[in-house]
Amino acid sequence: ILDGLANINIDAAAQTVQANVSQASAEQWQIETQAGDIALESGKAYQLTFDASCTTDTEMLFGITRIDDGNYPVCWRNTANLSTEMQTYSYTFTLRYSTQSDFYLYFDYGNTAGNYIIKNPKLIEVGTNLLPDVTDWTHYVSSGSAQMASDAQTQTFTANVTADGLYEWDIQAQARNLTLEKGKKYKLSVDMACSEETALSMGILHQVG
Fold first, then answer.
1. Is 35:12 a contact under the CB 8 Å cutoff?
2. Are 62 and 49 in contact (CB under 8 A)?
3. Of 70, 88, 97, 199, whose CB count within 10 A is highest?
4. What DSSP assignment string belongs to 162-208?
5. Tens digit of pLDDT for each residue in 183-199?
6. Residue of 79, 89, 82 whose CA lies nearest to 57
7. Residues sharing a CB contact under 8 Å with residue 203, sequence separation 6 or more, in sequence order
């Protein structure tokens, strides 16, 4: 807080930041919160999500920067239009700056007096497909009958099930040998269709022993 008046509270357990700005500052950045020591790689895509509200309708500035020889380069920034209703905001960006380990994420509250609440902020890497080529997937049929095929060019997998299995897992496609890290978050997205309305089960399994 370099100007204006504000009381800022951070609740780590609830993943919530509350900035009660009683007097706006001359510049937005003069009242802000920062999350530092973030390692980002040049050319990679990242997704920032958070829930936010303010007792006064306002435009909140936020972004990514670092201290570079006393300067604060604009590595990425954006704005969110806040209202009294808590909303979820999501932004995807590609880092157009050199790889560094000392970036920080900032939220600016200085332009408007009000009670700002930021909840559940998350910054994750996106755009990296961890799955193998569909032509390398394993086909598994223990009961029932199915013909399975894959197309490398369109990355399409087709399972033509002509007789039901005894259990839903008796006919499977498996993408094996994935490397995942404990505590990290991953996003699975897939386009699917079936000639019959049905429920499809999917998940991650680790075979032990």
1. no
2. no
3. 97
4. EE--SSGGGEEEE-------TT-----------SS------------
5. 888 888 888 999 999 99
6. 82
7. none
Using one digit for the tens of pLDDT, what is the confidence trace for 102-126? 999 999 999 899 999 999 999 998 8
Q: Which residue has the tokens 């700002």?
A: 116
Reading the block at residue 85, the tokens are: 């209703």
Q: Identify the DSSP state of 112.
A: S
The CA distances from residue 191 to 47, 92, 155, in Å, are 21, 21, 11
Encode pLDDT of 64-104 as tens digits. 999 998 999 999 999 999 999 999 999 988 898 999 999 99
Token pair, residue 53, equals 């509200």
- pTM of the entire structure? 0.62
> What is the dihedral sign for C-alpha 53, 56, 58, 64?
negative
**By the 8 A CB rule, do 168 and 200 touch?**
no
**Sequence-separated (6 or more) residues with CB below 8 Å from residue 50:** 88, 89, 118, 119, 120, 121, 122
Q: Which amino acid is at 179?
A: T
d(CA 158, CA 64) in angstroms, rounded, equals: 42
- The residues facing 163 across adjacent strands are 145
**Counting every residue, how long is the chain?**
209
